[in-house]
């Protein structure tokens, strides 16, 4: 082994160090003054971001630790997105966790989950993929139960049980694929599966995808999303609907063309069907929600559907990878922005509570409108450019029907986003009252995210070319 | 490189951003006054561009900056004889609406900021020479208009109409985007740049991709225009929108659809356009007749005018469709049809804008659009009655007004390539004449009847100076174009000739 190069893993190591040191420090700090743990986590993210930028600019793509871990454009982009999202999540959660007796746990679990998500994106070996799956799952189970109230207990239990089931299925799939292909490294597996039994390969792939779709919150493994999102504080919901998705989708993108020969298993069609079902189910279920967090939960399911379109045409369109990575970045910022608005108004839980927001809190209402229209894909926000590239990739890759379905779904999604925007712009007081408690730091995070979502879209010309290129094998 | 077009487009947005920093307790007149000044400044710049436009055709005042080079997207703007009249129309209508808005009292700051933003995106659509830039402005016009109808429309029904408008036109815009993607992928190298695509003619070979691209783009534009059967969003949106919103919706936003045909669908997909030109002609004629018939049956005056928009836009489709029929046979006839189609866009914008502002006056006084509630208004409000009559006669195509010039050119041009559809379309003029005469009779003749408020009879004032100042210039312009159209036709004709050559290749 000559490529055991820890210097290639500085962002991952920074997160790990931030988490471990934070855990130790949290044990010694007074219960109500644990902010240094948060500061440490922020510093870890910044170090990781710095290292990502420097290595992306200076070091060519490489595979490290045998053939286990790939550090290429996709990994670097995931690092940048996950670390930025983690920073944003730390920021929008300040008002929720500050002074809480389990503050350091929140921060540590967030960092470990983020680390798992990054590892998912770089994993080039089924065993590492599974380990990363666990790392991206277990901390978030804890995070779901973090607030410790009755509803979060239920959410955490549901998340844990479905996650444990998905994990077992994924492990079985890993074993089956190993049996069929005789290897766990993607390149070797690709070779082995070409000559192996197609039936076993198909079963193994579906089982492995069960784990990844669970992490991404895509149909049919999406049942945990609404309950966990609705049952946890907005800060936690923001994290679990954003950060694991990034790694899971990039991980799937790396796994499918890298390890599964198309002539053995028709995975593009499988992914296209998953994408179609996700976007449609998510949208239909979101239609008549009255709880804002539940509405956002279903909206994230439909967003995963659009994102999976890029995975379905992986390797068949030059636009697929830049589209996926850019869309993920735009989605992360915009979705966190929407959740930050929710976190800024802790008393407003239903759509009706947002009535008259534009009058009382014009800036927050503007951030909400920008983020929700951003999720629709209105130009010039980042998600628009992401959608444009992904739709182009889908048409280019021969899935024109999927692009048409995505367009129809996008129009349908306008309906429920407007159900939220319309009362916010209406005059009059909220039905429940008391929506005037505003968390100022979450509010600032929301404004920043909304601005970033627009700026990323406008600056897409500078970002998009950086995301091109093929994956390293 | 001249930046005058960017200045024209983004001046209102910059002013809007500056106004955002002004506290809203400042009197509303300050905001509206700033808006009027911005509109006049824009108008001045457009006049400068108009005088500087070379007679040769082709794009002028072009600006091109790379925006997202890896996706073939650039910030590319420019004007030619097809877009400049619409650009001028946009500035005129927005300035008229600004003057009209002097009487607005509800949340004036937000209202003016929203309108200035809408002004930027509307101007942007007509100068965009990149499909994605076009789509960006096209889409944002929907968002801004949604907020306008939902925020300043007529209550709960206004919000429902705004939602319908948003969903329907958003579907159209995304269909358009799909079509753009197909064209983008067909071009080699991939690009969204309109002049490059026109030159490359990437789907000249026809086939399924070309048909699908035209279908997607056609549906997208047809929803916005709107044509039968995609028109159902229009009547409620118009009825529930505030008067200024209706004027902009009919005067400017509908033109984005028809402009899309002459700017994008025809020159980029010429062969496919020729193949399906008869479909366009038929859709146009059906819109003409259906719009007129349904308008005839309305008792709500605003709804009636909304349906006449469908009728008038039908003529535009007839004109552009006829240009694709029997190419190369009668150059002059097709030239006439295309020129007439563009003239009709300008004419309809001016006249219908004035009509919608006038119905706003009516609603302001009587709080209803129901024609049955009014009678004999000419005695009480002679100025209002006079202007309404002028606008109605202009709209039904009386010689001496711009509508006549436009419709005459379209029908003359379309007669040779499509004789039967043209003959059917002429009946639309008769129907429009009938419905406007009936409306005038109901509103203005007979014994005086005014909808009373509960309790005391309300004062029913004639047109105020501010309202007249907004409406009269529109009608004066429509008359000037009707009497001395050369200044407009000289700009349109070279561009129309170029367009016909592009369609015929």
UniProtKB/TrEMBL annotation, chain A:
Keywords on record: Cell membrane, Membrane, NAD, Quinone, Translocase, Transmembrane, Transmembrane helix, Transport
Major subcellular location class: membrane
Membrane topology note: Multi-pass membrane protein
E.C. number(s) listed in UniProt: 7.1.1.-
Top EC category: translocase
Assembly mode: NDH-1 is composed of 14 different subunits. Subunits NuoA, H, J, K, L, M, N constitute the membrane sector of the complex.
Name the record gives this protein: NADH-quinone oxidoreductase subunit N
Phylogenetic placement of the source organism: Bacteria, Bacillati, Actinomycetota, Actinomycetes, Pseudonocardiales
Gene: nuoN
Automatic annotation (TrEMBL), chain B:
Taxonomy, superkingdom: Bacteria
Any Pfam family hit: Proton_antipo_M
Catalytic activity, EC: 1.6.5.-
Residue ranges of every copy of the NADH:quinone oxidoreductase/Mrp antiporter transmembrane domain listed in the record: 128-432
Main location group: membrane
InterPro entries, per database record: NADH_Q_OxRdtase_chainM/4, NADH_UbQ_OxRdtase, ND/Mrp_TM
Membrane topology category: Multi-pass membrane protein
Subcellular localization(s) per the UniProt record: Endomembrane system; Membrane
Gene Ontology MF, one: oxidoreductase activity
NCBIfam families xref list: NDH_I_M
Similarity field: Belongs to the complex I subunit 4 family.
Name of the protein in question: NADH-quinone oxidoreductase subunit M
Organism of derivation: Pseudonocardia xinjiangensis
């Amino acid at each position: 082994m000559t490529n055991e190069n820890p210097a290639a893993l500085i962002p991952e190591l920074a997160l790990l160090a931030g988490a471990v040191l934070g855990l130790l420090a949290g044990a010694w700090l007074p219960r109500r003054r644990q902010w240094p743990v948060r500061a440490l986590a922020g510093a870890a993210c910044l170090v990781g971001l710095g290292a990502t930028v420097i290595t992306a600019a200076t070091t060519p793509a490489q595979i490290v630790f045998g053939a286990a871990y790939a550090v290429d454009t996709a990994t670097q982009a995931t690092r940048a997105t996950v670390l930025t999202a983690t920073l944003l999540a730390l920021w929008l959660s300040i008002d929720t966790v500050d002074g809480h007796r389990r503050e350091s746990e929140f921060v540590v679990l967030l960092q470990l989950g983020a680390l798992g998500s990054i590892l998912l994106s770089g994993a080039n070996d089924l065993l590492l993929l599974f380990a990363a799956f666990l790392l991206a799952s277990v901390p978030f189970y804890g995070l779901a139960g973090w607030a410790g109230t009755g509803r979060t207990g239920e959410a955490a239990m549901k998340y844990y049980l479905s996650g444990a089931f998905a994990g077992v299925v994924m492990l079985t799939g890993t074993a089956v694929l190993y049996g069929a292909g005789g290897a766990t490294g993607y390149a070797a597996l690709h070779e082995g599966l070409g000559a192996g039994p197609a039936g076993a390969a198909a079963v193994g792939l579906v089982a492995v995808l069960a784990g990844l779709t669970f992490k991404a919150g895509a149909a049919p493994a999406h049942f945990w999303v609404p309950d966990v999102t609705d049952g946890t504080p907005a800060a936690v919901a923001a994290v679990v609907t954003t950060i694991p998705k990034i790694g899971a989708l990039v991980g799937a993108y790396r796994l499918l063309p890298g390890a599964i020969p198309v002539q053995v298993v028709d995975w593009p069609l499988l992914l296209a069907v998953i994408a179609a079902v996700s976007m449609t189910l998510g949208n239909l279920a979101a239609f008549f929600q009255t709880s804002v967090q539940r509405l956002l939960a279903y909206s994230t399911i439909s967003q995963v559907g659009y994102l999976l379109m890029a995975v379905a045409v992986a390797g068949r369109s030059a636009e697929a990878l830049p589209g996926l990575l850019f869309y993920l970045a735009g989605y992360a910022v915009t979705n966190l922005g929407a959740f930050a608005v929710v976190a800024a108004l802790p008393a407003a839980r239903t759509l009706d509570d947002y009535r008259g927001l534009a009058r009382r809190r014009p800036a927050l209402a503007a951030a909400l409108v920008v983020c929700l229209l951003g999720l629709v894909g209105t130009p010039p926000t980042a998600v628009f450019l992401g959608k444009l590239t992904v739709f182009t990739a889908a048409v280019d890759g021969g899935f024109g029907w999927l692009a048409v379905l995505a367009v129809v779904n996008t129009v349908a999604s306008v309906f429920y986003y407007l159900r939220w925007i319309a009362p916010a712009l209406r005059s009059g007081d909220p039905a429940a009252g008391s929506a005037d408690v505003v968390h100022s730091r979450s509010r600032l995070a929301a404004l920043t995210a909304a601005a970033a979502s627009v700026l990323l879209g406008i600056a897409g010309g500078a970002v998009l070319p950086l995301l091109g290129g093929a994956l390293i094998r | 490189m001249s930046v005058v077009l960017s200045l024209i487009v983004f001046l209102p947005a910059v002013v809007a951003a500056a106004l955002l920093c002004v506290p809203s307790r400042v009197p509303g007149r300050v905001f509206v006054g700033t808006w009027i000044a911005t509109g006049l400044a824009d108008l001045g710049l457009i006049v400068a561009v108009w005088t500087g436009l070379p007679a040769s055709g082709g794009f002028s005042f072009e600006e091109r900056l790379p925006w997202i080079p890896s996706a073939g997207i650039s910030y590319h703007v420019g004007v030619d004889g097809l877009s400049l009249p619409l650009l001028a129309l946009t500035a005129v209508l927005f300035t008229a609406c600004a003057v009209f808005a002097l009487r607005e009292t509800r949340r004036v700051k937000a209202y003016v900021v929203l309108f200035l933003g809408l002004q930027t995106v509307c101007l942007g659509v007509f100068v965009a020479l990149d499909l994605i830039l076009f789509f960006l402005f096209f889409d944002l016009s929907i968002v801004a208009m949604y907020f306008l109808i939902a925020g300043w429309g007529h209550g709960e029904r206004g919000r429902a109409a705004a939602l319908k408008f948003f969903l329907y036109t958003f579907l159209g815009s995304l269909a358009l985007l799909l079509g753009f993607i197909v064209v983008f992928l067909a071009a080699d190298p991939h690009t969204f740049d309109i002049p490059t695509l026109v030159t490359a003619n990437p789907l000249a070979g026809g086939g399924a991709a070309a048909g699908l691209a035209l279908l997607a783009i056609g549906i997208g534009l047809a929803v916005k225009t709107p044509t039968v059967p995609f028109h159902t969003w229009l009547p409620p949106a118009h009825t529930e929108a505030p008067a200024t919103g209706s004027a902009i919706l009919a005067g400017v936003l509908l033109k984005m659809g028809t402009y899309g045909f002459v700017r994008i669908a025809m020159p980029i997909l010429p062969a496919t356009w020729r193949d399906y030109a008869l479909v366009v002609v038929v859709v146009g004629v059906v819109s003409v007749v259906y719009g007129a018939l349904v308008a005839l049956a309305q008792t709500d005056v605003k709804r009636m005018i909304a349906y006449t928009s469908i009728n008038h836009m039908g003529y535009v489709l007839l004109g552009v469709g006829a240009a694709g029929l029997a190419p190369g046979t009668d150059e002059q006839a097709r030239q006439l049809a295309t020129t007439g189609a563009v003239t009709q866009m300008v004419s309809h914008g001016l006249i219908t804008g004035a009509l919608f502002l006038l119905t706003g006056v009516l609603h302001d006084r009587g709080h209803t659009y129901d024609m049955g509630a009014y009678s004999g208004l000419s005695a009480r409000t002679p100025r209002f009655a006079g202007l309404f009559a002028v606008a109605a006669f202009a709209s039904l195509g009386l010689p001496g007004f711009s509508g006549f010039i436009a419709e005459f050119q379209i029908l003359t041009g379309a007669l040779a390539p499509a004789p039967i559809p043209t003959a059917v379309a002429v009946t639309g003029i008769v129907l429009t004449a009938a419905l406007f005469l009936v409306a005038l009779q109901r509103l203005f003749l007979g014994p005086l009847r005014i909808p009373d408020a509960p309790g005391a009879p309300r004062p029913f004032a004639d047109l105020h100076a501010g309202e007249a100042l907004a409406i009269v210039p529109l009608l004066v312009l429509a008359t000037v174009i009707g009497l001395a159209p050369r200044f407009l036709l000289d700009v349109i004709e070279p561009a129309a000739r170029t367009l016909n050559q592009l369609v015929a290749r």
